[in-house]
Write a structure and sequence with these properties.
Layout (H helix, E strand, L loop, with lengths): L1 H12 L5 H17 L3 E4 L6 H18 L5 H17 L12 H4 L5 E3 L2 E5 L5 H12 L3 E6 L4 H10 L6 E5 H12 L4 H22 L7 E4 L1
Parallel strand pairs: 1-6, 3-4, 4-5
Antiparallel strand pairs: 2-3
Length: 220
């Protein structure tokens, strides 16, 4: 620290010191450090599975707000849905969240049987055009999004005249129902189901993402 203070003083002597720039540099380093740490998921038996998922997504939102250009929420959404699909189905293909559908030749984020599944935290017109293409290819369509974006996605589907042909699902309920079923409606079973889901999620993130901070660490 003494050496660093001497360094800053030397800049002052040379009239090149910009404490604002120095401060911004250190803030960026702190944010990068925090972003590299895994999300924490506390297994609190007093909380419902939906609230557990909601707490996790709130961590992703906070990190996204603190890191300009980050897409943590969308990435976590995609890989949580992918983990759930892996548990109930085989042959599901996974991609990094930044991989554009056009570059991978994908109809959607996931294709399960005749169902195209789109996972997004920001539904828009481009997504609905893709849904139209899916429907034109005789595929069923599901949009999975955050609770606060369900109404928006449904409104867009109505504008595109496909509301009766597209299912819009809330990610929290989408996962919570699976955790109840996979856990056989038993407290110990639900805990095992959450652990299984997070293990699958971490496996996907490790293989398809470069940011280790996207992993989820379980805590009691």
């Amino acid at each position: 620290m003494n050496s660093y203070v001497d360094f800053l003083n030397s800049l002052s002597d040379e009239e090149t010191e910009d404490l604002g720039a120095v401060e911004r540099w250190w803030i960026d380093r702190v944010l990068n450090f925090l972003a590299s740490r895994p999300f924490k998921l506390r297994l609190d038996s007093s909380k419902s599975p939906r609230v557990i998922v909601s707490d996790l997504l709130e961590q992703a939102r906070k990190r996204q707000r603190d890191s300009a250009g980050a897409t943590n929420v969308g990435t976590v959404l995609q890989h949580l849905v992918g983990a759930k699909l892996d548990i109930v189905l085989s042959g599901i293909k996974h991609y990094g969240a930044s991989a554009a559908d056009q570059s991978t030749g994908r109809e959607s984020d996931f294709l399960a049987g005749d169902v195209a599944i789109h996972v997004t935290s920001a539904p828009g017109e481009a997504l609905l055009r893709k849904c139209e293409e899916n429907l034109g290819s005789s595929l069923r369509v599901i949009i999975v999004t955050t609770p606060d974006r369900v109404a928006l996605a449904q409104g867009l589907a109505e504008q595109f005249n496909v509301l009766q042909r597209v299912d819009v699902l809330d990610i929290e309920q989408f996962l919570a129902s699976n955790l109840y079923e996979h856990g056989r409606f038993d407290p110990a079973g639900r805990r095992t189901a959450v652990e299984h889901l997070i293990a699958k999620y971490n496996e996907i993130v490790t293989k398809h993402e470069t940011d280790p901070g996207l992993r989820i660490e379980l805590a009691n």
